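Shipment paperwork, digital attachment
Item: protein structure file
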Amino acid sequence: MKKKLLLTTLLLSTLSLKADEFIGIIKPIHDVKISVPLDGIVQSIYVKEGSYVKKGQKILKLENQLQQLEVNRRKIIWKDKAQLNASIENQKIQKRLFNSTKELYEQTRAVSEQEVQLLESKLYTLKGDIAMRKENEKKEKIEYNIAQKLLSKYLIKSPINGVVIEMGLQRGEWAKSGKPFVRIVNTYTCYIDINIDEAYSSKLKVGKKINFTVKTKNVTAKKKGKIIFISPVADMASGLVRIKIEFLNKKNRVTPGLSATINIDAFSKNKRKEP
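Attachment content:
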């Protein structure tokens, strides 16, 4: 019922407009809602509502003392090469002992063949032990990197340039993963989301640059934009085709979130002639 009412309102508003005017919604090209990737207590908040942030700038940090200790522990384990170095030195000694014993056996038979074989077996065991320790060192490095990566999740950074318009957390508050707490928008670039008749949209192409005029209650602004999306299907109820037009909004003259009447000369010029 609501959908039918909305479509009826849209059609009635369209009928009252000029042939080359349409009603659309202005939206920011980037509008992100940020949540924390894991549960935790908010330790620090670096921005507030209204703050301009750059991509990669710190937004907030969760308490991370335990994870920091885990990173330090993993680093110590990875960097500890005492046992590996001991095995390498032992291998050198064992190799010299084996070579001298083997030479003694071959020249004088002063030692038994069994003693030579026993020394050779110990030498192979040491080689296997060194190889195993080297592989363990690789695993320890990976575990250290995993701990570091997990630590980085406690610090939340902005994924875009923009303005913080919502900050739903306070210091000391419990943050639950998956729930959006921060919203950042970039209004420098916006787009208009409109629905137009197929007679107009059929002549348009993605990437085409067009001039248009945006009219809100308080602002009339001439803009130049680019078509970034044309729906491949029309709405079954209204027969209208959805398109998006991207444009620069450097001085924030146009407020995203508002509906606007859009006058686009390119549509009327490209309108398909009636038979």
